[in-house]
């Protein structure tokens, strides 16, 4: 960032850029969850700044394509950040990666916050909503989801 | 209040109700409305009837890794309850049980319950079908299980009363035509039926009218997708109650909130907008004559020695995390146990009561559930609306019952969440994350490919849930073991559970039906049963292997009958051995049919309330000065 | 900031014929709607999971405003009129001047905070004076002084015309056009059909008393009208947020709230530009697309309401899903930083602008036609 630029960039630009590559969702959608800062901080807290740095370097070396990551630690970090975005859950790391990172915390999965669950991206992949939040309204379940044909009508179907 | 040397520690009531769940709340409502002084003792906490308590439960559920039925509700060491996660399958079959229940049966009892105000019905699905008239005499008609001392017709008016109290949405004409349920002429449910899901319509379009044989030599059955009645706010029926209509009940704990179902797809474990009926809605209308005391774990029913009961002993605690508690008693003319089938049996056993027949705790039943799952050839709209809005009802009765357990087929609107933990399991799998962290992980998909793959896969998921009638067997039972006690020193329940061959044959038939359904639907069948951690209910039968789950429908443990020789309660759910002790709830059911049991339990309870009222009235009638009659 | 928009007000007099009354009712409909975008903006600007009590309060008010709109539309249909909703003239641009009031208070689309609250309190402020025009205490050429006075005038007009024309003649609308409880019910009262003088007066009572309170009290009349738990009227519900304290059962408007504390985290909202316009978002940007999409979905909502209010009440069911779609779009916008560098530098976030044009209505109609 240019030190003379008076306009601060949006929050965590680097993390968002990487997350776009990992998730396949655009920046607007990711920021639209309101969870960029929380996910950034969770990642740093879980694997440490040094590992995040190596992961970013590896990703850059792979031309920005997470599929090209060869180092297993960086690859597992890629899996974890993606898992976080899709489900709001920081997953268990692979046992060897957990050891390699020398983490001093238990290697257990946890939901980052109640809102993280409700902002999970997985629901958007099939035009759904997280159960228990963002309900779409009475009777909407009767409509065809996007991309589905209208069901053939038969006698005695729902009039309402 | 009486003056004089009364014992202030032992307040007297007309009725003590043990348990503030569905049955207990209805009893307190009915008797309180008639002016009887009712004390309701609830073992758990009562945070859930406040708005902050409700929001906390919702947050807890959102933050839970597994959205199991008890996910929203805080563990309570003072009043422990089981969780479906207590069971673990072993690598080669068999299971291990941790948690509240001790289990020693060949197969695991896979259902949970909840001890808190509102009870297990806080996390029920809200399906409210009636039982089939045939379900009340299975021994006489089909040669298995036990018969009710009542018939459908005896219960019919009470079904209507229960449908009013619970606010049921349904289509009586459809239930009559498709299932053969008798209703009085012109009857309509309080609310119009819940709209069927898109998935229901697709399945109906491909299956309605199709004739199928469950085995090559079996008679043909005609398939029909039928809408299920729900205790869930829908569109009120203006013609209900002779044109008086029905006003849906909103949320509890906050003014003027709550509405019709908005499709949260979270009925289990908790309805965020409280469109679904819970006992808390009934409690909100209790009269001032009803007193609720929570944090009160009843440990014993007290008897007078002449067969009559005096009241109950209970353990009162303040801090659920502390073992500290005080022992208290409450006296009443009538004691009503409404603590859940397992807890009622436990209490009777701990008190040494009502067991002249030797049947207390026996005949434990559930609705064993077989799941099958697959992918539609186009988006199915999963994870929308109530868990199930329609089903196939054609396997619920008929001559085939002689050979195999009957079943109801629920069309599952929530993808593979129950059979496969979707969509979390799908995300992990596609990312290459294996269940065991010591195993090497796959390369994994990222970015647009991951997103597309998930959408294509999860978006087509659907499942069938086959719920079987389990026959009453005396070997399936609840006992208590004084060597294993809970935090307050109360012995924990020991469950011995298995499935009869009758049920296993039903499961095998259902699987054969499922295979045909998937073929007829042109859907990809992904059903597979393998032993392992997440399959405690895996078993072999004949040439096949299956896995069943619990439905949360515990029943039978204080079975009702026509004779005191072989049953625990009489047709009024009154203990044969104790004229002023009732045990109400699903525990009284001699058979459970294939219907989700809550509506029937509510109907049965409302019927019993009339008898309780008469009992109390007789006790208070001055002319009925009771002379010793030498009754047992 | 641009000059606030001024809404057309009907003439300062008691409605003297049917056409006059219909004009007044259309104005009432526009007025009820005017409040909805500012309330929604404040509610959806809250950070995820934060300020739940405040969010709950604003939500309850918004739902009752929707109820009011529907009741006014029912009344308009009942007297033979036709509501006009799906029209760019129906949606004011913001900021707008609150009509029918002496002080020219601007109503803007603000994020949750003290300034938004002040506006809300002004909108819902009880009118303790406000006799209708023609009353000896009101001068001939005085203009409107309050919303309460406007509704009092409407009421006087309904009474007068019912007496002049006869009740049956005044309420000549087709009963099939009435939206009823089967089509819309929710928290805080229910919709009922307006078919005669009594139901017309009841509808007006709900509209005024849910907002300002009944007879100089803190509370509305839901208990009496709907058999529901009474709750503080809108003004006092907003006052609870401002004062961070709930009203208790014995509290009075003069005494203020003495109930339990309400925790309000004033900083837990995304700061928004109260003068936000789509034109401020760079063409082709994701924020621009989302803001445009929002206006289109809002146009669809109004099309649904238009159909529901003018002959097909059952389609009102589609309004709730559309509202929920708007919520998702709105929240997503609010959580994104403003794409304009200067505004972002000021810490501002993107927001929907409620600039609904004929172009949006055309697209919304086309979308609805596709779904048929």
Automatic annotation (TrEMBL), chain C:
Domain Iminophenyl-pyruvate dimer synthase positions: 25-242
InterPro entries membership: Ferritin-like, VioB/RebD_dom
Coiled-coil segments on the chain, per record: none
Protein name: Iminophenyl-pyruvate dimer synthase domain-containing protein
Organism: Streptomyces cinnamoneus
């Amino acid at each position: 960032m240019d030190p003379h630029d008076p306009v601060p960039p949006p929050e965590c630009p680097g993390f968002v850029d990487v997350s776009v590559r990992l998730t396949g969702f655009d920046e607007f959608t990711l920021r639209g969850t309101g969870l960029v800062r929380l996910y950034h901080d969770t990642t740093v807290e879980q694997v440490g700044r040094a590992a995040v740095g190596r992961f970013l370097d590896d990703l850059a070396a792979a031309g920005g394509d997470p599929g090209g990551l060869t180092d297993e630690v960086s690859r597992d970090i890629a899996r974890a950040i993606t898992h976080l975005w899709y489900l709001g859950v920081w997953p268990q790391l692979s046992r060897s990666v957990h050891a390699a990172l020398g983490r001093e915390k238990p290697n257990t999965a946890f939901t980052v916050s109640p809102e993280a669950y409700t902002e999970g991206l997985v629901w958007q992949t099939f035009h759904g909503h997280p159960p228990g939040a963002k309900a779409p309204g009475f009777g909407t379940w009767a409509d065809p989801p996007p991309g589905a044909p209208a069901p053939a009508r038969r006698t005695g179907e729902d009039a309402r | 209040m009486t003056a004089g040397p009364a014992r202030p520690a032992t307040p007297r009531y007309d009725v003590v109700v043990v348990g503030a769940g569905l049955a207990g709340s209805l009893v307190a409502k009915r008797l309180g409305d008639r002016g009887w002084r009712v004390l309701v003792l609830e073992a758990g906490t009562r945070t859930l009837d406040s708005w902050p308590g409700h929001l906390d439960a919702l947050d807890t559920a959102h933050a839970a890794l597994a959205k199991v039925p008890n996910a929203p509700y805080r563990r309570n060491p003072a009043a422990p309850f089981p969780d479906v996660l207590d069971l673990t399958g072993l690598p080669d079959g068999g299971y291990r049980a941790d948690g509240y229940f001790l289990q020693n049966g060949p197969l695991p009892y896979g259902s949970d319950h909840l001890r808190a105000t509102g009870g297990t019905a806080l996390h029920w699905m809200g399906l409210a079908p009636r039982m089939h008239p045939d379900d009340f005499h299975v021994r006489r008609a089909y040669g298995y299980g036990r018969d009710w001392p009542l018939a459908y017709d005896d219960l019919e008016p009470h079904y209507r009363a229960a449908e009013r109290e619970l606010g049921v949405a349904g289509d009586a004409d459809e239930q009559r035509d498709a299932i053969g349920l008798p209703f009085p002429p012109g009857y309509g449910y309080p609310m119009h039926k819940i709209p069927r899901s898109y998935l229901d319509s697709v399945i109906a379009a491909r299956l309605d009218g199709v004739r199928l044989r469950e085995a090559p030599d079996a008679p043909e059955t005609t398939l029909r997708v039928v809408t299920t009645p729900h205790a869930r706010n829908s569109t009120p029926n203006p013609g209900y109650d002779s044109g008086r209509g029905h006003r849906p009940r909103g949320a509890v704990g906050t003014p003027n909130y709550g509405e019709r179902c908005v499709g949260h797809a979270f009925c289990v474990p908790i309805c965020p907008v409280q469109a679904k009926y819970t006992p808390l809605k009934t409690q909100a209308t209790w009269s001032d004559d009803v007193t609720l005391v929570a944090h009160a774990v009843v440990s014993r029913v007290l008897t007078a020695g002449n067969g009559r009961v005096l009241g109950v002993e209970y353990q009162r605690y303040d801090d659920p995390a502390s073992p500290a508690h005080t022992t208290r008693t409450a006296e009443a003319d009538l004691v009503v146990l409404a603590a859940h089938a397992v807890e009622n049996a436990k209490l009777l056993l701990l008190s040494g009561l009502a067991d002249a027949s030797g049947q207390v705790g026996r005949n434990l039943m559930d609705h064993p559930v077989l799941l099958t799952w697959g992918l539609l050839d186009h988006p199915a709209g999963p994870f929308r609306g109530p868990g199930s809005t329609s089903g196939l009802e054609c396997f619920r009765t008929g001559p085939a019952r002689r050979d195999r357990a009957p079943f109801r087929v629920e069309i599952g609107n929530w993808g593979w969440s129950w059979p496969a933990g979707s969509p979390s399991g799908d995300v992990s799998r596609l990312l290459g994350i294996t269940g065991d962290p010591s195993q090497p992980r796959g390369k994994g998909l990222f970015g647009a490919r991951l997103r597309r793959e998930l959408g294509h896969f999860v978006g087509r998921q659907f499942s069938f849930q086959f719920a079987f009638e389990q026959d009453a067997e005396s070997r399936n039972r609840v006992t208590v073991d004084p060597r294993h006690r809970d935090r307050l020193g109360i012995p924990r329940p020991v469950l011995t559970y298995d499935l009869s061959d009758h049920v296993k044959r039903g499961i095998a038939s259902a699987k054969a039906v499922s295979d045909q359904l998937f073929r007829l639907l042109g859907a990809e069948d992904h059903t597979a049963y393998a032993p392992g951690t997440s399959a405690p209910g895996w078993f072999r039968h004949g040439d096949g292997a299956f896995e069943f789950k619990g439905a949360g429908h515990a029943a039978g443990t204080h079975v009702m009958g026509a004779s005191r020789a072989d049953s625990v309660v009489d047709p009024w759910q009154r203990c044969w051995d104790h004229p002023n002790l009732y045990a109400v709830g699903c525990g009284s059911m001699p058979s459970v049919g294939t219907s989700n049991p809550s509506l029937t339990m509510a109907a049965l309870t409302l019927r019993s309330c009339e008898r309780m009222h008469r009992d109390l009235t007789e006790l208070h009638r001055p002319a009925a000065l009771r002379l010793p009659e030498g009754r047992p | 900031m641009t000059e606030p928009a001024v809404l057309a007000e009907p003439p300062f007099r008691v409605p003297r014929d049917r056409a006059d009354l219909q004009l007044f009712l259309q104005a009432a409909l526009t007025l009820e709607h005017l409040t909805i975008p500012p309330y929604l903006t404040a509610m959806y600007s809250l950070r995820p999971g934060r300020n739940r009590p405040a969010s709950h309060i604003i939500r309850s008010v918004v739902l009752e405003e929707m109820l009011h709109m529907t009741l006014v539309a029912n009344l308009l249909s009942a007297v033979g009129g036709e509501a006009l909703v799906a029209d760019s003239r129906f949606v004011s641009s913001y900021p707008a001047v609150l009509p029918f009031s002496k002080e020219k208070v601007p109503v803007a689309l603000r994020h949750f905070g003290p300034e938004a609250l002040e506006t809300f309190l002004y909108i819902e402020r009880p009118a303790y004076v406000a006799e209708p025009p023609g009353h000896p205490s009101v001068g001939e050429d005085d203009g409107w002084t309050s919303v309460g006075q406007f509704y009092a005038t409407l009421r006087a007009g309904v009474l007068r015309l019912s007496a002049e024309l006869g009740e049956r003649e005044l309420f000549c609308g087709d009963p099939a056009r009435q939206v009823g409880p089967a089509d819309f019910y929710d928290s805080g009262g229910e919709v009922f059909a307006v078919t005669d003088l009594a139901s017309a007066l009841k509808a007006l009572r709900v509209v005024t008393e849910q907002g300002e309170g009944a007879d100089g009290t803190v509370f509305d009349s839901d208990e009496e009208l709907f058999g529901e738990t009474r709750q503080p009227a809108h003004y006092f519900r907003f006052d609870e947020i401002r004062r961070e304290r709930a009203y208790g059962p014995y509290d009075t408007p003069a005494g203020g709230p003495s109930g339990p504390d309400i925790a309000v985290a004033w900083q837990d909202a995304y700061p928004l530009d109260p003068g936000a316009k789509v034109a401020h978002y760079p063409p082709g940007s994701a924020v621009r697309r989302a803001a445009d999409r929002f206006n289109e979905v809002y146009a669809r909502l109004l099309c649904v309401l238009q159909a529901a209010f003018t002959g097909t009440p059952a389609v009102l069911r589609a309004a709730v899903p559309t509202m929920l779609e708007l919520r998702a779009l709105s929240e997503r916008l609010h959580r994104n930083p403003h794409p304009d560098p200067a505004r972002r530098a000021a810490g501002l976030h993107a927001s929907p602008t409620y600039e609904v044009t004929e172009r949006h209505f055309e697209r919304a109609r086309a979308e609805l036609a596709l779904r048929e």
